[in-house]
Amino acid sequence: MPNDKKALGIDFGLKRIGLSLSDDTMTVAFPFKYIINESLKKTILLLSKIISEENIGLIVVGMPIGLKGKQTEISLKINELISELKKATENGPEITVYDERFSSVQAQKSLIEQNIKRKKKKEKIDSVASSFILQSYLDRQKQRKEIF
Questions:
Q1: 125, 52 contact by CB (below 8 A)
Q2: Phi first, then psi: what are they for 85, rounded to 5°?
Q3: What is the predicted pLDDT for the residue at 7?
Q4: Cβ-based neighbours of 110, under 8 Å, separated by 6 or more
Q5: Nearest in space to 104 (alpha carbons), one of 120, 121, 116
Q6: Which residues, other chains included, contact 63 with Cβ-Cβ below 8 Å and sequence gap of 6+?
Q7: How far is CA 58 from CA 23, 87, 109, 148, in A?
Q8: Distance between CA 42 and CA 78 in Å, rounded?
Q9: What are phi and psi of 79, to 5 degrees?
Q10: 3-state SS string over the chain?
Q11: Homologous superfamily of domain range 6-147
Q12: CA–CA separation, 63 and 75 (whole Å)
């Protein structure tokens, strides 16, 4: 994969979808923004535009696995999103899922530590959670490369 590509992190929610981006070396993740989850069709159009504009080479979608290791109700909606995104971006970026069990909790703690006001917290939590998912994935990939 060329080094000038970025990774896009997705924290799927029924109301909002948090997005994060990596740098061009896919080393560091940053909160990007959130989009309102109005419909699957609209979400796919918005994501397709971002993928093109931001030169995305990898998409990491947070998948909430239940504490007992089972998929949750929202997992079905995420699988539908992934399926439609693959169709819309045929020959596009690689799409992978990553366990996101505790990303929202980490994001809330991070925002509290930064003394972010309650209203702003609600606006930022989804993109911050997405950046935790993406950063965790990137770190794990880096560790695997160092081992092998």
A1: no
A2: -65, -40
A3: 97
A4: 128, 132
A5: 121
A6: 71, 75, 78, 97, 98, 99, 100
A7: 12, 15, 27, 21
A8: 15
A9: -60, -35
A10: CCCCCEEEEEECCCCEEEEEEECCCCCCEEEEEEEECCCHHHHHHHHHHHHHHCCEEEEEEEECECCCCCECHHHHHHHHHHHHHHHHCCCCCEEEEEECCCHHHHHHHHHHHCCCCHHHHHHHHHHHHHHHHHHHHHHHHHHHHHHC
A11: YqgF/RNase H-like domain (3.30.420.140)
A12: 6
0.90 exceeded by the pTM? no
Angle CA 41–42–44, to nearest 5: 65
User: Would you kindly state where each structural domain of the chain is located, as residue ranges?
Assistant: 6-147
Q: What is the pLDDT along the chain (148 residues), one digit of tens a residue?
A: 446 899 999 999 999 999 999 999 999 999 999 999 999 999 999 999 999 999 999 999 998 876 666 677 888 899 999 999 999 998 889 999 987 755 455 545 554 555 555 554 455 777 888 898 999 899 888 877 766 5
CB 22 within 8 A of CB 45: no
